[in-house]
Amino acid sequence: MFKETRLRSIIKTISWRILATLTTFLIVLIFTKKLYLALAVGGVEVVAKTVIYFFHERIWNKIHFGKVQLKPFVLWFTGLPSSGKSTLADFVAERLKKIGLKVERLDGDKVRQIFPQTGFSREERNAHIRRIGYLCSILEKNGICPLASFVSPYREARDFVRNITSNFIEVYVATPLEVCERRDIKGLYKKARSGEINQFTGVNDPYEAPLNPNITINTEKTSVEESARIVLNYLRNNKYLK
Predict the structure, then answer these.
(1) What is the pLDDT of residues 127-156, one digit of tens each?
(2) 204 CB contacts (<8 Å, ≥6 apart)?
(3) Number of separate domains in the chain
(4) 174 lies in some domain
(5) For residue 191, what pLDDT band results from cuts at 50, 70 and 90?
(6) How far apart are CA 38 and CA 103, in angstroms?
(7) Of all residues in the chain, what percent are helix, strand and coil, respectively (each to 5)?
(8) Would you say residue 1 lies in a domain?
(9) Residue 188 located in a structural domain
(10) Has residue 90 been placed in a domain?
């Protein structure tokens, strides 16, 4: 949320008066052909209207009529590894930044680089998601929209985040398992199937799909641009965006 400062109002006043006074000066000069008269009119106008414009701006800054208060929200992308969560979340985040929203990206891989000791058991995963969810709730309360992309395989952890945030929007990236495996450039699925990796979601650890997600997207069938459009349309239709 932004508020017009006194200094900004002064600078706007000066820049506008320079332009407006030059316009008045030229109009008087064109119609009267008298330079002294054009200068006199321009001089009187610049003083009088500078004062009027400044107070006009300050008064309107205090009037709430016509101002739209956008609700901050938590956009939570969940799905199997390599389903396209991060790519989609990054794309949507850039679109939201371009229209002036305060956005913060939280991604599973990047967060685990900071906390590499975080384990992969059900209890450890749930604790991890609860921590991220709490962070999202704090960002949301401060008018920042977090876009979180985490596998977050268990419903109980996602429900925890939903319950501690005000506007939780669950985006289920429902890309089929076989497609995720084909996309896996890190070879993690292959390692999981060979037994090199334990507790890997989708292979030897379950993924509990959302029962009632706000948005469902299959990135096998839609491009990242089309998928982002679906998300943005949802936000507009539900009054999160103008």
Answers:
(1) 999 999 999 999 999 999 999 999 999 999
(2) 192, 197, 198
(3) 2
(4) yes
(5) very high
(6) 51
(7) 55, 10, 35
(8) no
(9) yes
(10) yes
CA distances from 105 to 135, 136, 176 (A): 12, 10, 25
Active site residues: 152
Question: Which range marks the domain in which residue 181 is found?
Answer: 74-237
Cα separation, 189 vs 195, whole angstroms: 10
Which CATH number fits the domain that encloses residue 130? 3.40.50.300
- Report the C-alpha gap between 193 and 205 in whole angstroms: 11
Residues 97 and 151 in one domain: yes
Q: What was the pLDDT predicted at 56?
A: 78
110 and 220 within one domain: yes
d(CA 3, CA 108): 35
| β strands within 23-133, DSSP E | 74-78, 103-107
Whether 52 and 99 map to the same domain: the answer is no
Angular region, 84: left φ>0, alpha ψ -120 to 50, beta rest: left
Residue 71: strand, helix, or coil:
coil
CA–CA dist 212, 240 (Å, integer): 20
What is residue 69's predicted lDDT score, i.e. its pLDDT? 64
- pLDDT tens for residues 39-81? 888 788 878 877 887 787 778 777 766 656 678 999 999 999 9
pLDDT in tens, 170-183: 999 999 999 999 99
pLDDT-above-90 percentage for the chain: 66
Q: What global pTM score does this model have?
A: 0.75
